[in-house]
UniProtKB/TrEMBL annotation:
Residues that hold Mg(2+) according to the record: 155, 184
Protein's name in the database: 1-deoxy-D-xylulose-5-phosphate synthase
Domain of life: Bacteria
Ranges in coiled-coil conformation: none
The protein's required cofactors: thiamine diphosphate; Mg(2+)
Protein species of origin: Sedimentitalea nanhaiensis
Length: 642
């Protein structure tokens, strides 16, 4: 052996084509280096670690065998894409992941030609890959060419209806399409559901790959190392009736399961599939989430998401919080109420920890339902729970509830069923960026007849809203609250039931009224302090409800002030629009009221800290102050009139 230190192979990779020069042994070495680089990068940025570590070998193998960007590698959810980013020309920016002006934590078309399809919500990859396959076969083209389409989808993501809709269609169209099922027996939490049990059974019966391929007479599809075993299996299978996997029933050829950390299995299988696949084929790959980094492997969530951390110890660098998170306040309040009312049940779509329902589930396991990544089903299921006399809390992130919108309209609202929607991650969420922003729920719920829509201004208000929702049996009701910690207000023993459609006055002032809906209230109060220094004392009110509106409050604010400004953490079409509609209907604009509505801008805001994202949106304290000054015509140097 030479003593000269060798240049790491990773330093020789600018783009995936560079991998073609490496031997299989070198690819194995490269995978080791890629894993270390991924850990190092995430240690300084924080982010999704475990999923990426689990697909290091798969990422290397895919890029070594296929020809991206001509071939389209589509990562489902794409929280596992960091190793892919490192190999596709973005290593020099990998330590900017999820930061302002940095790399997105997900695949993004505008970021790289190696990201043919953006994602972040789950279970879209097979549909996308099928679309590329059909486009290819119908003569479509992309600037990079158009070859194979490969979807890499996790066992969690595979549980969603959309994945099955896509497989159903793919089996029918029978186009050449490659789906890699990355089965690590984990979602964010341990996966639940019949599909998960089915997948476990699939590989409990080793050597399954031999039996299935043999049963289908597909021995020749298998790479050399498997053929002998397959032949033996075929002999053994003589006379046995083999039903085929679910995937085969849907029209896919099935290969697997194979060890997704063994390049000596991955490379030959992928090469064979590339050379020979004709219709849709599913390769079942077994991996370990967090693979190769002990702190991730040992973590309860297998390192799904992490703060910055020390690489040696794995210890995360979190800042101590001054207040409880909204999520935990919700979880505790609901658990407390459920102790007093056994009709309360809770539904989560694969996010028990993220929504705080883990607390509820510990105490009331039989009343908490993790439906898997299945928001549509979760909503309709909740509707029927309500119809059956229970008090369901359908608990979802604002952004993921979007997927269940037709169910919200058709199954809940039209039937006026009292589903309680607990909507977490309302507003701008930070590092996950535009895909995860909870921007639209106010608009998409408040326009539904009969819906009650609330937003908590602080964590005590959230407690009141949970109690209000629990007590409300007349119609659907929703309350929203943001990601992260509360403002640190004192918490009551119990939430109190609020009067539906009634806001509250925070501060009586003059000339201008600021009407808040949600947690911008704290920024409004900061703005008011700055305004006080200029001799302006605004009136401040917390609307609490976007629907029904507090008409009396709003009309009196309008008649008693020169200007009225609404502020909300949501896109246009929400609270401010409803207030404007009321003012218009009541002829208030004819009286000369200056009305302004501060909403999220008509643009998708990239990842940054929530404060930076709200600065881009123009909704931080200084910007609220500037808006007040402008509407009152108080000249300040360098500021535009509102
Ligand atoms: C529609 C939707 N619902 C929920 C989520 C939140 N989410 C992100 S990753 C994930 C688990 C995915 O599990 P799996 O596909 O098995 O990937 P793994 O992390 O195990 O690699 C969930 C629930 C999401 N991104 N999209
Ligand atoms: C990839 C994904 O969708 C989730 O992991 C999400 O990033 C979780 O967000 P929170 O950190 O806000 O729970
Ligand atoms: Mg998984």
């Amino acid at each position: 052996m030479s003593d000269t230190p060798q240049t790491p192979l990773l330093d020789q990779v600018d783009r995936p084509a560079d991998l073609k020069r490496f031997s299989d042994a070198q690819l194995i070495q490269l995978a080791g280096e890629l894993r270390a680089e991924t850990v190092s990068a995430v240690s300084v940025t924080g982010g999704h670690l475990g999923a990426g570590l689990g697909v290091v070998e798969l990422t290397v193998a895919l890029h070594a065998v296929f020809d991206a960007p001509r071939d389209k590698i589509i990562w489902d959810v794409s929280h596992q894409c960091y190793p892919h980013k490192i190999l596709t020309g973005r290593r020099n920016r990998i330590r900017t992941l999820r930061m302002k002006d940095g790399l997105s934590g997900f695949t993004k078309r505008s970021e790289s030609p190696y990201d043919p399809f953006g994602a972040a919500h789950s279970s879209t990859s097979i549909s996308a890959a099928l679309g590329f396959s059909v486009a290819r076969d119908l003569g479509g083209m992309t600037p990079e060419g158009l070859g194979d389409a490969i979807a890499v989808i996790g066992d969690g993501a595979m549980s969603a209806g959309m994945a099955f809709e896509a497989m159903n269609n793919a089996g029918h169209l029978n186009k050449r399409l490659i789906v890699i099922l990355n089965d690590n027996e984990m979602s964010i939490a341990p996966p639940v559901g019949a599909l998960s049990s089915y997948l476990s059974r699939l590989y409990a019966e080793e050597p399954f790959q031999d039996f299935k391929a043999a049963a289908k007479g597909a021995v020749s599809l298998l790479p050399e190392p498997f053929r002998e075993g397959a032949k033996r299996a075929k002999d053994m299978l003589k006379g046995l009736a083999v039903g085929g996997t679910l995937f085969e029933k849907l029209g896919f050829s099935y290969v697997g399961p194979i060890d997704g950390h063994d390049m000596n299995q991955l490379l030959p299988v992928l090469r064979t599939v590339k050379a020979r696949a004709q219709g849709p084929i599913l390769i079942h790959v077994l991996t370990k989430k967090g693979k190769g980094y002990a702190p991730a492997e040992q973590a309860r969530d297998k390192g799904h998401a992490t703060a910055k951390f020390d690489v040696i110890t794995g210890k995360q660098k979190t800042t101590p919080s001054n207040a409880p998170s909204y999520t935990s306040v919700f979880g505790k309040t609901l658990t407390q109420l459920a102790g007093q009312d056994d009709r309360i049940v809770a539904v989560t779509a694969a996010m028990p920890d993220g929504t705080g329902l883990n607390l509820f589930a510990e105490r009331f396991p039989s009343r908490c339902f993790d439906v898997g990544i299945a928001e549509q089903h979760g909503v309709t299921f909740s509707a029927a729970l309500a119809a059956g006399g229970l008090r369901p809390f359908c608990t979802m992130y604002s952004t993921f509830l979007q997927r269940g919108y037709d169910q919200v309209v058709h199954d809940v609202a039209i039937q006026r069923l009292p589903v309680r929607f607990a909507i977490d991650r309302a507003g701008l969420v930070g590092a996950d960026g535009a895909t995860h922003a909870g921007s639209y729920d106010i608009a998409y719920l408040a326009n539904l007849p009969g819906f009650v829509v609330m937003a908590a201004a602080d964590e005590a208000e959230l407690m009141h809203m949970v109690a209000t929702a629990a007590a409300h049996d007349d119609s659907p009701i929703a309350f929203r609250y943001p990601r992260g910690e509360g403002v640190g207000v004192e918490l009551p023993e119990q939430g109190e039931v609020l009067a539906i459609g009634k806001g509250r006055m925070i501060q009586q002032g003059k000339r201008v009224a600021l009407l808040s809906f949600g947690t911008r209230l704290a920024e409004i109060q900061k703005a008011a302090e700055a305004l006080a220094a200029r001799g302006i004392t605004p009136t401040i009110a917390d609307a609490r409800f976007a629907k029904p509106l507090d008409r009396d409050l709003i009309l009196s604010l309008a008649s008693d002030h020169e200007a009225l400004i609404t502020v909300e953490e949501g896109a246009v079409g929400g609270f401010g629009s409803h207030v404007a509609q009321l003012l218009a209907e009541e002829g208030v604009f004819d009286t000369g009221l200056k009305f302004r509505s501060m909403v999220l801008p008509d643009t998708f805001i990239d990842q940054a800290s929530p404060a930076d994202m709200y600065a881009v949106a123009g909704m931080n304290a200084a910007q609220i102050e500037a808006r007040v000054l402008a509407v009152l015509g108080v000249a300040t140097i360098g500021e535009k009139r509102a």
